[in-house]
């Protein structure tokens, strides 16, 4: 065997990384003689997440106890995690990595809560496919769909409304693993509200009526005696139907991770959510842990007002606690290592800004937001997970991007990068659960 063959398994991934760094290099014809490999600088190895980024884990004790017990419980138990955040949450790359890691260990409890329907083009929902007819009009907490005088919103981030009879929405399991026996639908109620028919794999279930004496919000549950692959909703008449969220569960032991995110959102935008709507959603999701994942958009804002951001974060934590209950722990997920090549965003004059390479830098405001969240975790009794630390520290975005784990914007993550980050968070949670279980005295026999 030649030396070339021995080196091939190493050179292939390294050359792939180089190709990502220089995407415009002309291709070499297959019959051309191979040029010698010349490296201007040492190659950066493919990044691996750094464990041990969870701090103040003691406040997660109720959740960690359930995580340690896993499926070793007699009655069916779903461990429910509700993540609320920005585009990282909306894109579902990292939350899918967390979901998959938990479900491998604990079982498939369901897909978890999502915005109802398909709220925007490019909407992604791992494990299930959402569709809707064109009659629905959307409102959002932030973005081009935002209408200040539109339908009330919850933490799902979107509300979709129609008064057209026969308007439809459907949710389809993408595999046998995500088939479900329990379906929850949340929407606005009121005197002029209409209703929807519900069918499971074409079999009618009890319709859902949103009519009520006064305006409000509610979530309704429909169950099937056997696992189904699709639920279809159809409006019954000209009554106004405004849907905010839906959820599926398998009826078996396992974990679910709900991702409620809006592209471009900051924690301040949660103030636009109505208490009744958000409260109904959280009550239906029944979380054992809430993750608040904000900070990237705040950190990229050149006009960031840190005191206002702190006030908004404190308010968001207080609202979630009031709705979920004080026994449900909250974890703040700090922003990732993310870079900008725009001086107005990176603000190179700030002492917290870290210059990387090729004109990219980690904005100083991003470091300020991360430090703020760490401080709030201590002050408010929250857990904190250092996403930047898991990546390896400042400027590791360069290596993650070069390896195809982070996108070219040095902010968002690819499917593989999201998987690694989600698995890293899951590993830290499992380690904390194991440590907590080991510290507890053994039960008397």
TrEMBL record:
Keywords: Hydrolase, Signal
Signal peptide boundaries: 1-29
One Pfam entry name: Lipase_GDSL_2
Keyword Signal: yes
Protein origin, superkingdom: Bacteria
SGNH hydrolase-type esterase domain: residues covered: 244-419
GO molecular function, one term: hydrolase activity
Database matches in PANTHER family: SGNH HYDROLASE-TYPE ESTERASE DOMAIN-CONTAINING PROTEIN (PTHR30383:SF29), THIOESTERASE 1/PROTEASE 1/LYSOPHOSPHOLIPASE L1 (PTHR30383)
Protein name: SGNH/GDSL hydrolase family protein
């Amino acid at each position: 065997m030649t030396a070339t063959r021995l080196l091939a398994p190493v050179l292939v991934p390294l050359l792939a990384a180089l190709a990502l760094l220089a995407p415009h290099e002309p291709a070499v014809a297959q019959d051309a003689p191979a040029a010698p490999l010349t490296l201007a600088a040492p190659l950066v190895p493919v990044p691996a997440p750094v464990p041990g980024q969870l701090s103040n884990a003691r406040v997660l004790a109720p959740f960690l106890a359930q995580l340690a017990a896993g499926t070793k419980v007699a009655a069916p138990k779903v461990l429910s995690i509700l993540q609320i955040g920005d585009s990282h949450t909306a894109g579902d790359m990292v939350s899918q990595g967390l979901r998959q890691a938990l479900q491998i260990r604990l079982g498939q409890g369901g897909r978890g809560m999502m915005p109802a329907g398909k709220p925007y083009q490019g909407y992604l929902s791992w494990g299930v496919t959402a569709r809707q007819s064109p009659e629905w009009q959307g409102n959002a907490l932030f973005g081009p769909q935002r209408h200040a005088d539109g339908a009330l919103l919850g933490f799902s981030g979107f509300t979709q409304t129609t008064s057209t009879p026969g308007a439809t929405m459907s949710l389809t399991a993408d595999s046998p693993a995500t088939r479900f026996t329990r379906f929850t639908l949340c929407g606005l109620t009121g005197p002029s509200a209409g209703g929807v028919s519900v069918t499971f794999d074409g079999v009618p279930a009890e319709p859902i009526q949103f009519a009520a004496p006064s305006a409000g919000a509610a979530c309704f549950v429909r169950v099937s005696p056997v696992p189904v692959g699709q639920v279809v909703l159809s409006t019954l008449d000209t009554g106004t139907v405004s849907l905010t969220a839906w959820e599926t569960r398998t009826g078996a032991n396992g974990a679910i991770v709900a991702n409620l995110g809006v592209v471009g959102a900051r924690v301040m935008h949660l103030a636009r959510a109505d208490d009744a709507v958000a409260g109904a959603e959280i009550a239906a999701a029944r979380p054992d842990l809430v993750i608040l994942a904000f900070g990237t958009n705040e950190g990229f804002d050149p006009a960031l007002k840190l005191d206002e951001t702190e006030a908004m974060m404190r308010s968001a934590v207080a609202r979630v606690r009031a709705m979920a209950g004080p026994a449900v722990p909250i974890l703040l997920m700090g922003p990732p290592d993310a870079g900008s090549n725009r001086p107005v965003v990176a603000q190179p004059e700030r002492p917290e800004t870290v210059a990387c390479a090729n004109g990219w830098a980690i904005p100083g405001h991003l470091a300020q937001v991360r430090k703020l969240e760490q401080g709030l975790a201590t002050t408010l009794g929250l857990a904190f997970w250092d996403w930047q630390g898991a990546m390896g520290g400042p400027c590791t975005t360069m290596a993650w991007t070069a390896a195809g784990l982070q996108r070219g914007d040095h902010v968002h993550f690819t499917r593989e990068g999201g998987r690694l980050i989600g698995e890293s968070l899951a590993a830290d949670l499992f380690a904390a659960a194991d440590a907590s279980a080991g510290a507890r005295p053994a039960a008397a026999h």
